[in-house]
Amino acid sequence: MTHAPTWLADAALQAFFAATQAAGGEVRVVGGAVRDFLLGAPEGDIDCASTLLPAQTIAVAQDVAFAFAYPHLLADWRAQGAEIRPFSPLADDPVPEAGFVFLPGGYPELHAGRLAANTRFLSGLRTAAQAGTPIYGECGGYMVLGDGLIDAQGARHEMAGLLRLETSFAHRKLHLGYRTVQASQGPMSGIWAAHEFHYATTVKAEGAPLFTARDAEGTPLPDMGLVQGAVCGSFAHLIDRAFPAPAQGVIPDA
What we know:
globular, seven-stranded antiparallel sheet, single chain, alpha/beta, six-stranded mixed sheet, Rossmann fold
């Protein structure tokens, strides 16, 4: 096989390569795009692994309420020289001083009363937001950034109040599937491969959306998440950067 992949000429991909290199990072195309090229199969999404860091110091919530963070993301950040500063919201740890705060997914709905009472944690989030520190929450972390969380028994618990968001587990509904999401602003700007898996119902979500979204077949979905200043989040778990398939269709096999 002597032909180069047609997606290498994609304008968005080349722009991302250039921006990453200008920032001192590196990019590699990985996963299905490489496999499809080698097999001569139709092009799918283009997944990229980059060495871009959200910050040199990253505070990461880590306990049983925030137990789901993709290990490869944290490992990549460490490999690129970032200092990961873990803290436990359930233990009411203050948010460590950092250039970026990450609240992963997990099960805050099972610990909502305890989290609502942990004033050092919540005030630390508010202080970081007031200082302009980028804060990103996904799934469970997103819910904690909102105004309130209603548990399965119908009790409402005050959360951080950084996003105009109310979520509820009193009426559960499954949301499941792979997503391709795109943000035009915030620390997670760009196009990402992601997945969604939760049972929460959104009672209120007011403000600018964080992501546009498509499902695994490319069908447009309603916008996802919220962004308010330096604070943002959504129900999507980000896997890695991705690019939509170029319009040319099929990669030549010879």
